Amino acid sequence: MRKKLIGLLGICLLAVVIPTVAINAQEKPVEKDVAQEKPYDPKADAQKDIDGLIAKAKKEKKNIVIQAGGNWCVWCLRFNDYIHQTKSVADLIKDNYVYYHLNYSPENKNEAVFNKYAPGKGKEFGYPFFIVMDATGKVLTVRESGNLESGASYDESKVLAFFKEWVPKKK
User: Fold this and answer.
1) Rounded Cα distance, 102 and 45, in Å
2) What mean pLDDT is predicted for residues 46-63?
3) Which residues cross the membrane (predicted)?
4) Which residues on adjacent β-strands are paired with residue 149?
C-alpha cells in the first residue's frame, strides 16, 4: 500500500512539474545566436596593436575606439554584431575611427594595457566598455555601455550619439 501511495504521489508530482517546466521554457525568449565572429584575441600583443592603431589613426586622420571585453561576454559579442549590422553605425565608425577589441579573459587580462588607458574601469563599468582616443593616443573618454542598451540589443540613437560625440575635428 505504501509503495502504491509513493508511486501515485510521484505521478501527481510529475503531472504538475512537467507542464510547469514546459510553460516556463516557452516564456523565456530564445537567445539569438550572437556574432559567429570572435573578435577578441587573447594571444594578441595589445600594446603593440594599439601602437599600430595610433600610427594608422594619424595617417587616416581618425580617432580610435577600443572596445574592452572578451569572447566570453555576450554583450560584447552583441555590440560587435550590432555595429556591423546597423548600417548607420557601421558607416559612422568606418568614416571616423579605427576600431580595436581589447581582450580581457582568464588567458590574458592585459593588465598593463588596462592600467595605462582605463585603470579600474572594468570593475567599475563591467564589459563591454569603450576607450576613445585621439590620433596621438591621448584618452578622450572611457565610457560604459549599459546605457546604450535597449532590450537584448542596443539603441541606435544612443549609440550614434556616443560615436558622434567623439568624431575627430576636421582641420
Assistant:
1) 10
2) 98
3) none
4) 154
Please tell me the total number of residues recorded for the chain in this structure: 171
- Reading the block at residue 65, the C-alpha cell is 575606439
CA dihedral for 167, 59, 108, 36, sign (positive or negative): positive
Nearest Cα to 74, choosing from 106, 114, 35, 43? Answer: 35
How far is Cα 131 from Cα 112, in angstroms, rounded to an integer?
A: 15
DSSP 8-state secondary structure symbol assigned to residue 26 = H
Cis amide bond preceding 128, omega within 30 = yes
Chain-wide mean pLDDT for the chain?
85
Cα–Cα distance for residue pair 54/151, rounded to 1 Å: 34
CATH superfamily assigned to domain 46-165: Glutaredoxin (3.40.30.10)
- Nearest CA-CA partner of 139 in 29, 64, 49, 45: 64
- Here the cell at position 11 is 505521478
Q: What is the pLDDT of residue 28?
A: 32
Q: State yes or no: pLDDT of 50 exceeds 90.
A: yes
